[in-house]
Amino acid sequence: MINSLSGRFLILTIIFVMLAEVFIFVPSVARFREDYLLARLERAQIASLALEADDMISPALERELLKNAEVYNVVLRRDEIRQLALSSPIPSPIVATYDMRDPSGMVLIRDAMMTLANTDDQIIRVIGNPVRDGGLLIEVTMDEMPLRAAMLTYGRNILIISAFISIVTAVLLFLAVQILLVRPIKGVVSHMQSYAKSPEDARQIITPSAGVTELRDAEEALQMMQTQLTGALKQKERLAQLGGAVAKVSHDLRNILTSAQLFTDRIEGSDDPLVKRMAPKLVNSITRAVNLCETTLAFGRVDEPAPTLGRVNLGSIVGDVIDSERLAAGDYPLSFAEDIPAVLSLRADGEQLFRVIFNLVRNARQAIMATGNPGEIAVQATEDDSAWHITITDTGPGLPPKAREHLFQPFQGGVRKGGSGLGLVIAADLIRGHGGRLELQRTDETGTTFAIQLPKADLALSPAAE
């Protein structure tokens, strides 16, 4: 109850109302004391009128008049002459005098607090202005204890009323919070719990119904999020099923195409002119199909092992890649250049780094050979205090707009006609596994540059690799 939203509203409301009443209590008691003393002055003035009506009044009547006015003495001042109108014995000396003719608010509050703090029976003098122009000044002496008792009774009544108001206000606020906030919030929480149990079920998506604007905005935002999440989960499930089917088909298709590739190797030795002319095209088509199957299978393997980091010589890896691509280029006018310090070694998985550089260099070679023009591929490496930097630059035609837009997206960022775009995706994943990043640095009609950055710090994966 206390930890609930409505329970805390209930407690805070009572506290705040009581604090407000405390601030009201002090000036209220001061005002009550002022009215009490002014009333005694007025009653004392009325009692003194009997003396004006009859100069000689009996002692008994005088005592009765003073008793009704609740004072001991009454002094009137007219025409600069002070006159003791009524008098009786004072049981003790006067200890304080209070002037009620024009007191300030702070003086009234101070005097009221002093009266409440005093517990001794003492006599006080009160000075005020007579009512209805009855003179210049009226002065009375009286007991302070009846005044203090009346002030305590008045203050107790204020506190009781304040407590009652606080409780009623708190209960009303409690009910209002329950109806306007707590119940709608509980409804949203209930919808979220139901949706969490079955996020694929579109029937569990919340329907906004709150009357409070802020809660309705929250419900609409939750509805949008649940709708998007349900659609994403369905798409993910379908893609997973499709991926499993594609992997199976690719595996079987690769075996079939590999067998077909063996037969085409024999067909190329035929003396038939037509066969000689068509065989290279057939071989190229089958090779592309085999490559597509292999890259699809490689991308579909979620159990790609984590890189085994160790010190590797980058020059040796790049040399193997360039030697392989020189053989693939044959007599084509394509030159290779490497600018790598002989002693440069970096911390990486040698096999995975070879696959990344080989993929980038092979893509560059294929792009240049597709143009029919001479070209050059250069591999350069540098290092600084925080990372190793490798760049692969070619003089090819640059990436087409579609490839730039979907460069690292599977099956969308293919550079070559008929390509799958999986090579760059796999390469980027391998580099992220090292805590680094692979990015396109430049591409235009004069060529393309890819940059690899591998961190030197022995830390967990960088944010770019997450």
Automatic annotation (TrEMBL):
EC number(s) per entry: 2.7.13.3
Catalytic activity: ATP + protein L-histidine = ADP + protein N-phospho-L-histidine
Domain Histidine kinase stretches: 248-458
SUPFAM superfamilies: ATPase domain of HSP90 chaperone/DNA topoisomerase II/histidine kinase (SSF55874), Homodimeric domain of signal transducing histidine kinase (SSF47384)
GO molecular function terms attached to this record: kinase activity
Main location: membrane
Sequence intervals crossing the membrane: 6-30, 158-181
Record's subcellular location: Membrane
Pfam families reported in the protein's UniProt record: HATPase_c, HisKA
Enzyme class: transferase
PROSITE patterns for the chain: HIS_KIN (PS50109)
Keyword entries, A-Z: Kinase, Membrane, Phosphoprotein, Transferase, Transmembrane, Transmembrane helix
Name used for this protein in its record: histidine kinase
